[in-house]
Each structure stands twice: as C-alpha cells, then as structure tokens.
Amino acid sequence: MLNYSYFRSLWWKEGNFHPETKWEEATLPYVLAEGVTLDEYERRTDKFNVHGLWEWTNYKVSVYELPLELHETCIGAITSEIIETNAGIINLGATRTRADRSGKEADASFRPMKPGVPVQTGSDGKRKPWPNIIVEVAYSESINYVFEKVKDYWLKDLSRAHDAIVVKIDSISEDETPSRIRTRRGELQHRTHFEFGTHDGAGNPLNILQGTCLIKINLDCLYYQAHPDVQIPRTILPDPI
After folding, report:
1. How many other CB atoms are there within 10 angstroms of residue 25's CB atom?
2. pLDDT in tens for each of the 241 residues of the chain?
3. Where is this region: Disordered (predicted)?
4. What is the widest separation between alpha-carbon atoms in the chain?
5. Are residues 51 and 132 both part of a single domain?
6. Do 25 and 78 form a contact (C-beta atoms < 8 A)?
C-alpha cells in the first residue's frame, strides 16, 4: 500500500506533485509541512512556482487548493477580462502578502499606483500597499473556507483590500459539463451574490441572454487610495466598469 503522506510531502520537499498521491481524496486544507519559517515558505513557493495553492500560518504550510486545469483556466479568464478594460491598473497576479502571523496569496490581485502605507500595515508586513481588488477561485477549496479567508483576512479592515471577487466552481466528473458557477462580489460595505450558468440551483434552465448577470466595479473602488498623480479616467471608462 502506498504511503500517501510521504508522496504528498514531496510537493513541499521537491516541488513534485506526485501522480500517486490521490490528492483528490485528501481533506483540504491539508498540512504539508510544520516548523517552517515564513522566509523559507516564500523561498520554496518561488523555487517550485507554487502560487495561490499553499498558505503559511504559525509555522505550518497547508494546501488549500490543487493545481487543476479548470481552476487555472477560470483565473486566467477573469484576469483577462479585468486587464482588457483599459483601466490602467497593475496586474499583481498571485502576489504574496504577510499579516496576522500568516502568509497568503490571492489567485489574482489588482491595484492602481498607490503611495506607501504606515510601517507594518503594508501587504508585505512593511509599507507596500495592499491590492484594491483580489480574486479567489475555489474549486478543490470549500466555499466556507474561502469566504472565511476573504472576510477575516482580505477584507478584515479598511487598511487591506477594498473589494473581493469569489468564484466557487462545484466539482464535476471528467465527462460532465459545468452548468452553474456561484460568484460572490464583496466590498467592505456591500456584498452581492451572483449565479452564472445554464441552470439554477434547483436544476431549472436559466435564460442566459436577457438579464444576464455582470459583475461591475465602481471606478472609485477600483482607484481607491490611488496615488495623487493618478487620474481616474472618467471620460474614457464607463462607471461602473
């Protein structure tokens, strides 16, 4: 019988996402390593190019999402929609952050040029400004876990991210076609819930043409706390975008 815990540990030790590990049967978040410093965690995520899948909390490294094609495809599709708006904001990707004795990365993040923030309140634990918008795509990750992370970390207070877009993709078998995606868009003051797809939660067909849901973001939110030299392009872009 294979020692799954050993083969799973190879992802941390060697960057080897071993095919014999049966990660699909693991309960996430899964503790991958213990007694690890934050610096060592960040070094290995860079070395093995693992981003938006692991997180560090109190010297433990946990897997909360798996590197599956549908997860990565969804991130790419959302990122493309945002960066093609001519908004002139910075695509930070899965940039690392440090706060609350933890290290986390969103699947995607965006912000305009922003000034430095007070010491020890920045996204790097120093003065680097936080992103204005973060995107979390949950496939292997549970909806409760991702919502808790958004609420208690990314949108914890006004010094952090200003807006979050969360997409939950329900797991399906290889021979199925997804029919429904749940999305939550949340600002600090306002949270709204959307469902996209060809069927609703009860399995009834949806009219995906008339009244199709769109996620829209106010320019004041997109450019929240932008550098004084940054001009919001109100004459170029629709508001909300």
Report:
1. 7
2. 678 999 999 999 999 999 889 998 999 999 999 999 999 999 999 999 999 999 999 999 999 999 998 899 889 988 888 888 778 899 999 989 999 999 999 999 999 999 999 989 999 999 999 999 999 999 999 989 999 999 999 999 989 999 998 888 877 666 766 555 555 555 545 544 445 555 555 666 655 554 455 677 888 888 999 999 999 988 888 888 7
3. 101-125
4. 65
5. no
6. no
User: Residue 110 maps to which CATH number?
Assistant: 3.90.1570
Same domain, 35 and 111: no
39 lies in the same domain as 80? no
Q: Which residues form the domain of 29?
A: 1-66
Say how many residues make up the chain.
241
Residues 40 and 113 in one domain: no
Domain boundary (66, 83, 118) is at 66
Tokens at residue 192, please? 């709204």
Nearest to 227 by CA among 117, 137, 76, 126: 117
Residue type at 89 in one-letter notation: I
Please name the residue that has the structure tokens 């815990």.
Answer: 5
